[in-house]
Design brief:
Blueprint lengths: L25 H9 L8 H12 L5 H16 L2 H15 L5 H10 L12 E3 L8 H23 L7 E2 L2 E2 L11 E4 L6 E4 L9 E6 L2 E6 L10 H13 L17 H11 L3 H12 L3 E5 L7 H14 L16 E6 L4 E5 L6 H16 L15 E2 L6 H20 E8 L5 H5 L4 H17 L5 E6 L8 E5 L3 H10 L6 H23 L5 H13 L11 H7 L3 E5 L7 E3 L8 E7 L4 E8 L7 H21 L6
Parallel strand pairs: 6-8, 8-9, 13-15, 15-17
Antiparallel strand pairs: 1-10, 1-16, 2-3, 4-5, 6-7, 7-11, 9-10, 12-18, 13-14, 17-18
Length: 625
């Protein structure tokens, strides 16, 4: 998810227009134009914060050496020159970072999207267990997404606020009718929502077969849930045979391999039209077969795997087009969720859409008018040559290896939710992040570079910056926590200090004052200016700082759901959580190929850390003022 190389820009194939930050009019444009532009933080400030962030994760000797390099960077004039370049860029552009970030974090990232980049999300298990229930729920879900789409199209989506400040709503306009397209060195994203004739269809996949389903009548009104249900039944009945090649599995491969296979695939006119239909569709719905039965305690973790990767070539992975921005997954056994392509948006807009859809599916259905006969949904054909078949087989093998390597645990922490830290006047997010630091320290005896995403949506076209949860204060607390020589009241004081330090860091990050994106900007500015790479970026400490063994994200929702993603480094963890009032949903991922990591072990350690921190605070209640 975090690849930072700068490479040549490669245009997508001729028949698709590349993504651009869409020009829109009306209320949305007025709102967007009123947002402040992302600032370039002062150089000295970022370098000071960088040195402080290194203290808990590098040795004293390494830190002293880095401090010298930082001073050289400042006194030699190199830093100042790059800073001026960034400031000029900021004056000329709507957001000095957004295009660079899209390229470096996503479009130039060459690892497979599956597990490495695309987040998955699991919804609460639905209570149907048969085909009728599956199709009925899928129809309601589709109706709910179209209801949300109407708010985007009419620009009536309520503007979101954080700390009283309006947020950039641009990501909502990127998630529908869009798709990633593989390129040999850099991918692109295409967006069809603002073309002259926006798409009126969705993609439905069943038994590895793709269908184009029109979801609007000729007068522009959306199909009702009943009408969609009838159409889904037709699709299901005409795709009972599974002897089709799982073409969709090609999208799970390494980006360079997929780009090559993609060019082979679209040489054929029939294939090209089918691919284009998928890329243009508003979103995709995957009608999965039941997930293999597992013990109840393993169910959540098992479904998380299904949402992330589909379970492999024999199961549901052929039911996916991993380049598609939004894919909703509904299996026959009631497990459901989605997987999404990350270039277009962060988690919150996706969750917001899902919260709306889940609420929508609970509403009583309106009595529908008698159904008019609707045309048969169009089956998308693929001509599979021996060369494409070979590409599919290779992709199947590679995906099988990746699935075997993924170690994922999803748990519900039932003992308390965000209400407890709030009752102690502590930030719930900072409290959970500190528990993670404690869990990691107890497991490994040291702190590590920790990434938590911070929203920059207070700024025009803002995406994210990094909250670094491993701080001098968090390290002081986790060292003291299990030390018998430290009095309990002092541990409480260290805990509160560490939580406050995280809170302060978060506030700085969302104000655009964190240092991570700033340093990335200085690096990319050096590449753009064709100057030799400054030593502070070639330093061992910088490599340690960017090797995020804990990659974390808080994605709160109104529903009992949880998001998940793979670790960003081979010896790391991916941790996501949704804090509810009285419980917390967690997902923890790792790779089996790393002997040192275990998702289950870290999850258990996290549970213990949370309970120990609660016990510590309850043992020393604050004096009531």
């Amino acid at each position: 998810m975090l690849a930072f190389a700068a490479r040549a820009v490669v245009k997508p194939p001729g028949f698709l227009k590349p993504f651009s930050l869409m020009k829109v009019s009306g209320r949305f444009k007025a709102h967007q134009d009123s947002l402040p532009r992302l600032p370039v933080p002062p150089l000295q400030q970022s370098l000071d914060h960088y040195l402080k962030a290194l203290q808990p994760i590098v040795s004293k000797e390494e830190w002293i050496q880095t401090k010298q390099l930082v001073e050289e960077f400042q006194t030699s004039g190199v830093g100042e020159r790059l800073q001026k370049g960034l400031e000029r860029r900021a004056k000329k552009s709507e957001n000095w970072l957004s295009e660079w970030w899209l390229k470096t974090a996503y479009l130039q990232y060459r690892q497979p999207l599956v597990i490495h980049s695309n987040p998955g999300l699991m919804l609460p298990k639905q209570d149907f267990v048969d085909l009728q229930g599956q199709l009925r729920f899928a129809a309601r879900l589709i109706e709910g997404v179209l209801d949300f789409k109407a708010m985007i199209d009419n620009e009536t989506l309520p503007v979101e606020y954080l700390g009283g400040k309006p947020l950039c709503m641009n990501q909502y306009y990127q998630i529908l009718s869009s798709c990633r397209v593989p390129g040999p060195k850099q991918d692109s994203v295409v967006n069809f929502s603002k073309v002259k004739k926006p798409p009126l269809h969705i993609t439905v996949v069943h038994n590895f077969q793709f269908f184009e389903l029109d979801v609007y009548h000729s007068d522009g009104t959306p199909l009702t849930a009943d009408q969609i249900f009838v159409q889904l039944e037709k699709i299901w009945n005409s795709s009972l045979q599974t002897n089709k090649e799982p073409v969709g599995i090609l999208t799970s491969n390494h980006r360079n391999s997929w780009a090559k296979a993609y060019n082979t695939l679209i040489k054929d006119k029939v294939n090209r039209e089918s691919v284009r239909s998928i890329q243009q569709s508003i979103f995709a719905v995957c009608l999965d077969r039941p997930v293999p039965r597992v013990a109840d305690e393993a169910y959540r973790s098992h479904v998380a795997g299904q949402m992330l990767h589909g379970g492999g070539g024999q199961l549901n992975s052929g039911n996916r087009w991993f380049d598609k921005t939004l894919q909703f997954i509904v299996a026959e056994d009631g497990s459901c969720g989605l997987v999404y392509e990350h270039a277009a948006a962060e988690g919150p807009p996706i969750i917001s859409l899902l919260d709306h859809v889940i609420e929508f599916t609970k509403k009583p259905e309106l009595v529908s008018p008698p159904t008019v006969p609707l045309p048969m949904p169009r089956k998308l054909r693929f001509n599979i040559t021996p060369e494409i078949k070979k590409d599919i087989e290779k992709a199947k093998q590679n995906l099988g290896i990746m699935i075997q390597d993924l170690d994922i645990t999803v748990m519900v922490f039932h003992h308390f939710g965000k209400d407890f830290p709030k009752s102690e006047k502590l930030s719930p997010d900072a409290f959970i992040q500190l528990a993670l630091q404690l869990a990691y320290y107890r497991t490994y005896g040291q702190a590590c570079a920790t990434y938590e995403s911070a929203s920059l949506r207070a700024f025009h076209l803002g995406r994210t910056d990094t909250i670094r949860s491993a701080t001098v204060e968090s390290l002081a607390f986790v060292r003291a926590m299990d030390g018998s020589s430290v009095p309990e009241h002092q541990k409480v004081e260290l805990l509160r200090r560490a939580v406050q330090a995280h809170r302060d860091y978060t506030d700085r990050a969302i104000r655009g004052e964190a240092f991570d994106r700033h340093l990335l900007g200085l690096r990319l500015q050096a590449v753009e200016d064709l100057v030799s790479m400054p030593d502070i970026f070639m330093d061992a400490s910088y490599a340690v700082a960017m090797h995020f063994k804990l990659s974390t994200s808080q994605v709160p929702a109104k529903t009992d759901c949880v998001m998940f993603f793979g670790p960003v480094v081979p010896d790391g963890y991916g941790v996501c959580y949704n804090p509810r009032e009285a419980h917390i949903h967690f997902s923890v991922s790792a790779y089996n190929s790393c002997a040192e990591t275990s998702a289950g072990r870290l999850a258990r350690s996290l549970e213990r850390a949370l309970l120990d921190m609660r016990a510590l605070l309850q043992g020393h209640p604050r004096a009531k003022l």
